[in-house]
User: Which sequence fits this backbone?
């Protein structure tokens, strides 16, 4: 009786089969992509906090690099000087203007509520708003419908915790950014590490320039607004100047909010003061938009206003107030990565044409 020869080929259940290995690799890639997308949705709040910490680290790194041009000392000492100067500036500002700012905040809230109720009554009288509307209720309803993902940040404890984590992450990254960059490069395949390092370097440079331009614009707008409103006799000029400077970090939307605040406060003190506030808003924003920003744009990233505004609308709808504040840096970094991708494709096309001509 003859024995049947054993089959030597691998079965489909064995991982040695090239077909099985290839299909498992494809399935693993798609499952990994789906898992990454699900984790990104679930962990969107921690990811935003980490990104905000990286933005803060970029701000500190910019100050450290700038200080290094005049002080040839170690990076740790320069970072310590930047942090101490920042703390001293904030503490000095709150100490010198704390009582006045606190009083003006109370006055500002009461003034805005009065002006909003007047506007609601006028709209109701014109038939543009159905019935007498409770402005406070409308505001609460609007705020409750925006940023559901990050609603916990609206609490005082959540806001303080978020700010603390952002500062800690920023400080750790700013102490030794090279370590974290090398860690990210290590997670990328070897053949792509060079290109990844180039993109990361460009993103860091763009982020530092963007933040430097934002700080310059914030300082200019805040100081000019405060001085102009004080000259015109607008109440609460100091706090309006501070708010204008802080809101200038968010382009387009921040300017609109600060302008509405100063105009409302101006008209609460009289018609002529209200027109002065309007003139101040137009002049300051015109100087910032047509003089200061074009100069800064030559040294920073060039973001079209419509692109920035669209990114802010989508980020605020998806991620709330934190997404709105980080929309500009996110857009700039994505734009940098896309520009580098286009450059890489152009280089490949040119090298391909050179080979064909040869």
Assistant:
């Amino acid at each position: 009786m003859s024995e049947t020869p054993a089959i030597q080929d691998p079965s489909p259940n064995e991982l040695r089969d090239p077909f099985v290995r290839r299909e498992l690799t494809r399935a693993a890639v798609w499952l990994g992509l789906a898992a990454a997308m699900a984790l990104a949705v679930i962990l969107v709040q921690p990811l935003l906090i980490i990104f905000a910490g990286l933005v803060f680290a970029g701000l500190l790194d910019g100050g450290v690099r700038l200080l290094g041009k005049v002080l040839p000392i170690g990076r740790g000492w320069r970072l310590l000087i930047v942090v101490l100067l920042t703390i001293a500036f904030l503490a000095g500002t709150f100490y010198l203007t704390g009582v006045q700012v606190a009083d003006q905040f109370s006055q500002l809230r009461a003034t805005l509520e009065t002006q909003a109720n007047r506007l609601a009554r006028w709209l109701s009288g014109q038939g543009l708003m159905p019935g007498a509307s409770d402005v406070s209720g409308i505001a609460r309803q609007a705020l409750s419908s925006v940023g559901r993902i990050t609603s916990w940040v609206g609490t005082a404890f959540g806001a303080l915790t978020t700010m603390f984590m952002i500062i800690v992450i920023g400080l750790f990254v700013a102490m030794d950014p090279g370590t974290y960059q090398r860690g990210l490069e290590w997670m990328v395949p070897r053949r792509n590490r060079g290109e990844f390092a180039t993109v990361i370097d460009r993103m860091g440079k763009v982020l530092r320039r963007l933040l430097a331009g934002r700080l310059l614009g914030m300082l200019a707008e805040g100081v000019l607004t405060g001085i102009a409103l004080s000259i015109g006799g607008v109440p609460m000029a100091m706090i309006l100047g501070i708010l204008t400077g802080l809101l200038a970090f968010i382009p387009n939307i921040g300017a609109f909010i600060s302008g509405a605040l100063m105009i409302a406060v101006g008209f609460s003190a009289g018609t002529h003061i209200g027109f002065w506030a309007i003139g101040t808003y137009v002049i300051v924003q015109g100087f910032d938009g047509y003089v200061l920003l074009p100069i800064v744009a030559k040294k920073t990233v060039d973001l079209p206003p419509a692109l920035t505004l669209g990114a802010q609308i989508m980020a605020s709808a998806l991620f709330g107030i934190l997404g709105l504040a980080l929309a500009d840096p996110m857009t700039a970094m994505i734009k940098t990565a896309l520009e580098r991708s286009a450059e890489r494709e152009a280089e490949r096309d040119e090298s391909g044409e050179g080979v064909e001509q040869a």
